[in-house]
Amino acid sequence: MKRHAGKQGHRLPRDLSDEMVERLWHSITSIRDRAWFALLLRAGLRVGEAVGLKLEDVLSPASESQPARLRVCGKGRKERLVLLTADAYAVLQAWLLMRPVVSSTYVFLNERDGGPLSANGIEYCLRGYGKQAGVSATPHQLRHTYARQLTEAGMPITSLGKLLGHSQVSTTQIYTAGADPQLAQAYQQAMQRLASAPLPLQEAPSSLPPAAPLLPFQERPDASVDWEAWGLELPPAIREATLAFVKRRQSLWKPGKRGKRAKVILGEFHRFWSRQMKLRPIQHPTELTLQDFHNFQTLRSTEETVAHTVDYTISLVIELLRQLADQGMSVNHTIFRFKPRSRPESLPRHLQEDEAQRLDQFMLERLVSSDEQVRLENACSFVLAHTGLRASECLELCVQDLDLPGKRLFVRDGKGRKDRVVYLSDTACQALQQYMSTASRHAHALLFTFPDGRPVSYMWLYQHLLAIGQAIQIPSLTAHRLRHTLATRLLNAGMEITRIQKILGHEHVNTTMIYARIHDQTVETEYRQAMKKIERQQMPLSNVPLLAEHWLMKSNIDPQIKTLDNSV
User: Fold this and answer.
1) Cα–Cα 20 to 30 A to 154, which of 11, 106, 233, 243?
2) Alpha-carbon gap, residue 217 to 344, rounded angstroms
3) Are residues 75 and 158 in the same domain?
4) Is the pTM of the predicted complex or chain greater than 0.85?
5) What average pLDDT score do residues 293-305 get?
């Protein structure tokens, strides 16, 4: 029997921001602990490598012209040389001068009996310092931070992999996934070009609308599924197979969304099975045929249902049947030849450039407000408009995911269980800084909350964007339209489509092309620039350029060409 593992997500390295590292450093008072902290942060050592370091492994001291060299025994008993800067070596040297004289040759000693310090000991100490500094940190996060800082400083990934002791470059890529200096630079350059573009001639609103009113607080309804009451009217075999399939899929979803998604999928199954029983009653899912799918498709089309909604429902049933086939049940294999109907090309959803600039102007004018509610609205608006986050990703951000000094946000467990980094414009950083100054927040708390501490809801965010759109005459302003708009604006500002793909978190660049639409003016500009380069490198086609409308006139044709033409 085949067993299919769930789709694995792509995780970002759990590095610490530079501000967190600074707070941790100031909380450490022990000279010994400062020394191992420096080795983890400035040499990228694993915690086991740090505690295994011996005095004879310090091969050469640091000088102004060269870093110190340490011999490290890493994973798989592989030895390698690591480098240590002069300032980090000075921290290590301060501990070595104070280190008690004992028989043990290990660099780091415990305070109990003078024996070697253990990995658990470092983890315990770091956890304590983290509590003092308000930072949740592990030794391995310092190693990730080391990799991120060197990558941002421009070190090639092959050299970094050698320092980290990786035998495969792909392993080093995992450590550096959150650091892409070229991508960050390309984003900032594109956003600066957009910010320097002339504002539209329309007049800005004469008066700013008041902050969107707080919606009455309601407890979130229980999203749990009543498994026992679902589909009691269906044949037992169909009901049991469907529930088992949904329960199996449920383990792959985010805990906070399992109940809601299970209800949605069970609803799709119920619609299919109910109509199937009217068209051709069956007792077991394996009795389905390809014709049943076509009949369902035809029936739903008469109900004016969107084509891709029908195809999504059928795809769920096909997935259920594939799972039953993997379990050894006899399934009609013609059903796997089902092809969804072709979908028409979607219309552009992005804002026109004058609308996007009008929105920027409106949000910029609101930055002067000191009202906490307005600052929350500004922060949400700028994050959505300048990062391309999905609404759900925006609402699930935690305080620890914000790195203001680095001008970036970490998106954890996004669509497809993928982590990614998005970058912040200067104005987005300003809006977030104003919002964060209103109250102190715990690192693991949600980033966006109302002044009274309640989490921001999707409905509030939806209504807030609609209200902004109405104030500046942009109908149906949604988070998804802002996502399309950012992709289109970045593309037309000169950013490469593959880099936009990374920011939006798309697996395939074709998906990004649906979001980003190239403007005709951009095509013309790029054509002119390219042709100028080509013409500089090629011999001229003529000494005196002719106007295009004169190219085919007989009077302008060279006599030799006329003769050639007559001979032909």
Assistant:
1) 11
2) 41
3) yes
4) no
5) 77
